[in-house]
């Protein structure tokens, strides 16, 4: 399922709350509405207030540190994000960054492979 929806599965979005000016550019440009800036609260209640309500309770919901302007929180639903990078591209302060990481996919009795290569099992 991950491969079907990810544009860049070996790239993750990294958010820096101190850099955020709450301009909402990232929220506006997101094609799948996985970003929301909102006041904090109980996780189940917060999930109902997101741009695209986070219905998959098995997927952790990203919550930033309080933002400097209003102490609201940047929430991101990883279950919805397609890793397109538009949030990082649009952010005027580089609060969003796209960073590569190793994605290991182990299989029983086979070599474990990542974007860096394979290792024997």
Looking at this protein, list some descriptive labels.
121 residues; alpha+beta; Alpha-Beta Plaits; two-stranded antiparallel ribbon; 4 helices; 7 strands
Care to describe what's here?
This protein is of the alpha+beta class and about 120 residues long. It has a single domain, classed as 2-Layer Sandwich (Alpha-Beta Plaits), CATH 3.30.70.20. Helix content is about 15%, strand content about 25%. It has four helices and seven strands; from the N terminus they run αβαβαββαβββ. The strands form three sheets. Strands 2-4-3 form a three-stranded antiparallel sheet. Strands 1-5 form a two-stranded antiparallel ribbon. Strand 6 and strand 7 form a beta hairpin. It is globular. The mean pLDDT is about 85.
Set down the secondary structure blueprint.
Elements: H1 2-5, E1 11-15, H2 25-29, E2 35-38, H3 43-48, E3 61-63, E4 73-77, H4 86-90, E5 96-100, E6 112-114, E7 117-119
Antiparallel strand pairs: 1-5, 2-4, 3-4, 6-7
Number of domains: 1
Range of strand content = 15-25%
Discrete helix count: 4
CATH architectural designation: 2-Layer Sandwich
Major beta-sheet overview: 3 strands, antiparallel
Low-confidence stretches: none
Could you tell me the number of beta strands?
A: 7
Helix content: 10-25%
CATH topology annotation: Alpha-Beta Plaits
Question: In a nutshell, what does this entry contain?
Answer:
The protein has helices spanning 2-5, 25-29, 43-48, 86-90, and strands at 11-15, 35-38, 61-63, 73-77, 96-100, 112-114, 117-119. The protein is an alpha+beta fold. It has a single domain, classed as Alpha-Beta Plaits, CATH 3.30.70.20.
């Amino acid at each position: 399922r991950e491969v079907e929806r990810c544009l860049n599965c070996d790239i993750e979005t990294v958010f820096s709350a101190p850099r955020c000016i709450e301009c909402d550019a990232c929220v506006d440009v997101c094609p799948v509405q996985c970003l929301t800036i909102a006041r904090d609260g109980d996780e189940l209640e917060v999930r109902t207030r997101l741009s695209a309500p986070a219905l998959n309770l098995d997927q952790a919901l990203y919550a930033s540190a309080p933002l400097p302007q209003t102490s609201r929180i940047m929430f991101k639903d990883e279950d919805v994000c397609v890793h397109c990078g538009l949030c990082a591209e649009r952010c005027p302060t580089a609060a969003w960054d796209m960073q590569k990481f190793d994605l290991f996919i182990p299989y029983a009795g086979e070599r474990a492979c990542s974007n860096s290569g394979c290792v024997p099992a």
